Amino acid sequence: MIELDEDVAAVWETLIHGDYDWLANRIMDFDLNHANIQAALDSPAKSIQEMAFCTILKNRVFHGGILAKGSGLIKHGENGKGIASRWYPATLKHRIAAIGHVRDRISFQRGDAFEVLEQLKERRDLFFFIDPPYTVAGKRLYTHFDIDHERLFAATACLQGKYMLTYDDTEEIRSLASTYRLPYRTIPMKTTHHLKKTEIIISDNFEWWD
Fold it and tell me: How far, in whole angstroms, is CA 191 from its chain's centroid?
């Protein structure tokens, strides 16, 4: 796994290389209220573990789970539960423990995916799952939203292994897929606001599709 965002990377570094039990217990012991949320997020000079906790906290209590700058706390949430709408400590602890039990089978590094794709492009024994910031919503959702999408298509076209690439369904993405002769299919999905849209899956093989 490769991740450039330092906050998201802190979560995976803690889960794969750090004390995941500490993170699970920190979540379980946290008294969720506005004052404690603000205190946790305003705390300076965080360790990797504290960064991991704050990232999960923001993902659970920010509107839409959005971590990008400018995102704010949930106001009403599901069934009027507000900030507690998506805060399920026991479930999060269970998921963290599940990852912890198999983490010796997972490798993680904070870095630039473009560099890794270049390094591994001739490996025929690999399967690449690539999930970049989308062209339309990326700016709203991610800190590192501004990527060279054509460069990513060019890099994907050079891969000797198998790959799957997900994207928003736009004319730009369809055009790039056609330019680099990358097969794609569209799939239905729902947004946070339950709007029906389509996304694109780009892959070297669609024998599994039907």
Answer: 16
Phi, psi of 130 (to 5 degrees): -120, 120
Note the pTM of the prediction, 2 decimals: 0.81
- The token pair at 103 is 């983490």
pLDDT at 197 (0 to 100): 81
Phi and psi at 82, nearest 5°, equal 60, -135
Strand-pair partners of 2: 109
Tokens of 41: 């997020």
Do the Cβ atoms of 131 and 120 come closer than 8 Å?
no
Q: What is the pLDDT of residues 52-66, one digit of tens each?
A: 999 999 989 886 666
DSSP secondary structure letter of residue 109: E
Which of 84, 35, 26, 32 has the alpha carbon at shortest distance from 53? 26
pLDDT score, position 138: 46
List residues bridging with 163 in a β-sheet: 128
| pLDDT at residue 8, as a whole number | 92
pLDDT 10s digits, 124-164: 999 999 998 877 654 555 554 678 999 999 999 999 999 99
